[in-house]
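HOLO CASE FILE
Compound: pyridoxal-5'-phosphate
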Amino acid sequence: MSSVSPYLCSTTRYELRCNECGKSYGNRPLSACPDCLAPLEVHYDLEPLQGHLTREKVGRGPASIWRYRDLLPVIRAFQPDLPVGFTPLVRASNLGKRLGSDSLYLKNDAVCSPTLSFKDRVVAVALANAQAFGFTTVGCSSTGNLANATAAQAARLGLKTCILVPSDLEAAKVLNTQVYGARLVRIAGSYDHVNRLCTLIADEYHWGLVNVNLRPYYAEGSKTVGYEIAEQLGWRLPDNIVCPMAGGSLMRKIRKGFQEFIALGLVEAKPVRFFGAQASGCSPIAHAVKNGWDYIEPQRPQTIARSLAIGNPADGPAAARMIQETGGWAEDVSDVEMVAGIQELAEDEGVFTETAGGVATAVTARLLAQGRIRRDELTVVCITGNGLKTTDALQGRFAEEAAVRPRLSDFDAYLRSVQPDLIGSQAEPTLAGGVY
Ligand SMILES: *Cc1c(COP(=O)(O)O)cnc(C)c1O
Ligand SMILES: [Zn+2]
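Model generated. Tokens follow.
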């Protein structure tokens, strides 16, 4: 592993390789093999880490993705200054009871720092590389969350930012990009149009686009979801992962993270089944899995789950293959089921997720009902984004409450008319419920 790239002339412990032909490309802003057009992926030399990267060493690290920096593609001189990731893994007993699981967990990236989605992880790694390559202008093509994450982190790093999105994006995601001072360009077309345009733009202007020419580095950031799940389960792997899919990258990288932990002896080897979740209005990967294909038939997205609305997913074929390999499955749910999923997760667990999390929750319900996931298996559902960004999805679901006059008698009359069971159901509080 000593190929010299025109950009970084240090001996690297990681480099880009073609997934198909295996050719090495060193480290440079390049996403596809010029020979066979297959995606490039970062490969590591794990040998020097054997025996050195221990549970204790990781445990002493910062409470962020940077505790795993030895397994991330960042140059030695890189100084992380933003605590991204290390989000809660929480038991979901109430939802488990509702859906028929005794061992259900949520990986809650709805509260990922700094912009409330798992995209903060991928952007952190991509921008570390943008800086190493000397890019002063960065950007992305985005279905929303990536735009937020790129705009926020680029602002902090003092990089100029230009972000392209499909014109029908949710208002909250547009605002959450513009507030950081990024140039946001709405493109009259679908995400797939936006993405194709960005490939041309990266070449034309020499910009560092996190999910285009920096994509191999960007994608590695998603491995940290897998590392954290394993560490937070007490250094062991779950039986099942349920994961929403757009481009199909997150899901694959969670597995890569697990495999690296196994290779380094940090967790015991064990088969983990991967279950993909999509919205029926844009389900090219789920469709491929259900048909046993290893190729993708592109779709024209029509769903309110805009963060998952990629009709021609870059990592789709690999994701479909991987799901089948692990003995998993993929399902897709309607927009109505997705909204019910959002509400159930909020009511049962106090977690307000965006549409993608509603998809993951509803698909988990389906998989348990089908018996594809069993009640006693340890299942982790990836909640990847925050509900405050997609409040449009719940528009009209809750009645606007009348304003009540600030008097006890008015309040009492009002309560008796709308929810009488709230009255008289509470015993007087006791003095001491426990030891103070
Ligand atoms: C981007 C995104 C995904 C899917 O990620 P891929 O790696 O493209 O499959 C899932 N959930 C949310 C909220 C996202 O923004
Ligand atoms: Zn190749």
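CASE NOTES: The first strand starts at residue 14 and ends at 18. The chain has two domains: 7-83+119-219, 89-115+222-394.
CLOSED: yes
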